[in-house]
Write a structure and sequence with these properties.
This protein is an alpha+beta fold and 374 residues long. The chain has 2 domains: 248 residues, no CATH class; 79 residues, no CATH class. Helix content is 57%, strand content 16%. It is built from 10 helices and 6 strands, in the order H-H-H-H-H-E-E-E-E-E-E-H-H-H-H-H. It has a 6-stranded antiparallel β-sheet with strand order 1-2-3-4-5-6. A hairpin with a 2-residue loop joins strand 3 and strand 4. Helix 2 runs parallel beside helix 7. The longest helix is centred in the N-terminal third of the chain and has 38 residues. It is elongated. The two termini are 39 Å apart. One of its GO terms (biological process) is transmembrane transport. Its main location: membrane. It comes from Pandoraea pneumonica. It is found in: Cell inner membrane. This is Lipopolysaccharide export system permease protein LptF.
Length: 374
Amino acid sequence: MIFQRSLQRELNYTAGAVFMVLITVMLTTMMIRILGFAASGKADPRDVLVLIGLAVVGYLAVILIVTLFVSILFVLTRWYRDSEMVVWFASGLSITDFIKPVLRFAAPYLAVITFCALVAWPWANLQISALEARFAQRDDVSMIAPGQFRESAANHRVFFVETVSPDATKVHNVFVSGTENGKVNVVVSKEGHIETAKDGNRYIVLENGRRYDGVPGQPDYRVMEFERYGVKIDNPAPTDVDNTPTKGVPTARLFREIANPIFRGEIVWRIGLPLLALSLVLLAVPLAYQNPRHGRTINLVMAVLIYLGYTNLLSLSQAYVAQERLPLAIGVWLLHAVALVIIVLLYVRRVRFRGLFSRRRNPGKSELNAGGTR
């Protein structure tokens, strides 16, 4: 059908443009955020690109949901504004005739959203947690960077190294500040290197320097000069790899351990994302209606408010189920059932003068009725 091909073509073009805009904004935001973490020592600079990619995978479902909703609204709103909808309605179509082509357009997106919500979302969060755990277990040597103050993993020592040799075996002009038993000690040295003791412990061996010990605010500081001074490198104990956050737990495990209320809340969120997308796709068709006498941005403002309200209510349902204030069987479907009722009422309101299903008017009957009412 002509109108279906025209609608599909415009939806595809608009969805591509909207997706590119959203993914660009998302990439820019995540890049600034992750680069800030790397600059402040909260993330490994070598993992920046990996973290950005995992963040994109994790948020892909949300991006696709917004892409679907906005693209359908933009296309149908433009058709109302340019009076194209008047042409289609005059040809005997009803607003319910738009449901089938819109769902055909949205079907691949809904499949990807379902996959992302159930598989890609937890996998990306699991990988991010693994990178964060690996970075948290780094030793003090891995944090040393020339020209920068770096805090040790144990948060009780600060390093500064002015330069590092090309082979990364020696450092020059070293400053180390630490706290032991309420006293502050400061060590400065011209150069140093790394040594491994027989017991396996590693030390930063400083040469030709001084150590200052004392309590801040008191004059009894002790000053020592040394030719060699060893600073033990802290090696944090490995963390439990199975201690992953709920967002990184595979969906299959959530259902196996469904007795856990936190897992039940996560199930509500993951199942709710595809249902949220489907509801917004169906809602966009009647919501795109535009009265030429009203402003052009009213429906778009309403769309933003509806999306924000829907997602917030979904998060609220997740929290209620996780807190055992709402049963899982009700929490999964209640919000979406209410949304379906509202969608049906909107369709009925838009077609109440034309009927729920498209049908062509009978000219003879119309003229007869018109003549009978004179």
